[in-house]
Design a protein that fits this description.
About 25% of the residues lie in helices and about 30% in strands. About 5% of the residues have low confidence.
């Protein structure tokens, strides 16, 4: 009974407090549904891609692995990240369009016929397309394959190896 008496005596204060609470709830809902739109900047947008690395003689250096990538990432960024994370030896020279993969795992560049080749979404990339400038997009499947004879041993079209 004391509660009922309290509300009768302070009816106007209770009503005002309830109205203020309702207004605050409505303002919060408005901000959630109609407030400032938050857009993730392109350089912070994340995507997913898959990478597999096969060395000399068909040695699987890295099984097919799905990983998150930032928008604008290159094949090099992907290799650099995954080899560091999995503690796989990785060596390269140059930057950008002159970047050359020298070693991944136990397979390293040897002479003119032994080198690393990229295949993205089932298509071989020309030896002149650098991992340093080849962008990766959401859902891409990247394979790094080591060839010991200008791509013949991995089924690379001869015109892409020259």
């Amino acid at each position: 009974m004391k509660i009922v008496e309290y509300f009768k005596k302070r009816k106007s204060i209770v009503i005002i407090r309830l109205m203020v609470a309702a207004i605050l709830i409505l303002l919060s809902l408005y901000a959630v549904f109609f407030g400032t739109e938050r857009v993730t900047p392109p350089d912070e947008a994340f995507h997913s891609a898959t990478i597999k690395i096969v060395g000399a003689g068909g040695e699987v250096v890295l099984e097919r692995t799905e990983m998150g990538i930032k928008s604008g990432a290159t094949v090099f960024d992907m290799i650099d990240h995954i080899t560091e994370k999995k503690d796989i030896p990785f060596e390269f020279s140059g930057i950008g369009d002159s970047l050359e993969i020298l070693r991944i795992g136990n397979s390293q560049k040897s002479g003119a016929e032994g080198f690393w080749v990229m295949r993205v979404n089932g298509e071989f990339m020309s030896v002149f397309e650098s991992a340093g400038i080849t962008n990766i997009y959401d859902g891409d499947i990247v394979e790094l394959l080591y060839t010991e004879n200008m791509g013949e041993d991995i089924g690379m079209p001869p015109e892409l190896a020259q």
